[in-house]
Structure formats: structure tokens, C-alpha cells
Amino acid sequence: MTPGQLRTLCLSFDAAAEDFPFNPETSVFKVRGRLFALTALDARPLKVNLKCDPEDAVRLRAEHPGLIVPGHHMNKRHWNTVTADGTLPDRLVGELVEDSYDLVVAGLPRADRLRLDRP
């Protein structure tokens, strides 16, 4: 997955926005003000922090050692750092981004969830 593809994917979700609260190099993708993806799009290899169900996080780390690891500078139980350098299938990376978005949406207040175009 290229940095452009990752950025496009993150912004394709309803109410998704890109912000730079830390520095100009670190893209923070949010939905209704809540973080669902964090990445330095210029970094090589390309890595992205994504929210994950704790049980799935452990399973994914075991299935993809070195490519999916506990979230760097994040709550290690709920966040993974995913290397998106082409080693993992783009489809899997896309599913993990979407899962992260969905988990964050699920934690939004009901009124905010109802404004989103998500099942």
C-alpha cells in the first residue's frame, strides 16, 4: 500500500478528517474528533497505528510477527502498529483500517453514530 492509498482509504470513511496535532509529518485521521489511524506518511517503511479489539490484536500479532506489533506510543492492549510496506496484503491492511474506524465509531455517542452513514 502506498502512502497515497493509505491516506485516500482513511479519508474515504464518512466524517473522516486528517489533522496534524503533533507535527506536520504525522497524519492523524479522526472521525468526529476521535483518532482511528495515526501515521507518518513519509516514513519508510510505512507504518500505521490502528485501534483493534484486544483479542484480535493478540491473534494478529501472532499471525504476522514483526509486521503487526503492539501500538507504538499507544495503549498496547487496544492498538497495533501495522507495517504497510507491501509485505502484508493491501486487502488485510484495508480491513484493519476499516475495523479501527468501526471500533471508534462504536464508541461515539449515539447521536453522533446516527449522523454517520454506517450500518
TrEMBL record:
It comes from the Bacteria. InterPro entries: YjbR (IPR007351), YjbR-like_sf (IPR038056), YjbR/MT2646/Rv2570-like (IPR058532). Transmembrane segments: none annotated. PANTHER family: CYTOPLASMIC PROTEIN, CYTOPLASMIC PROTEIN-RELATED. This is MmcQ-like protein. It comes from Streptomyces toyocaensis.
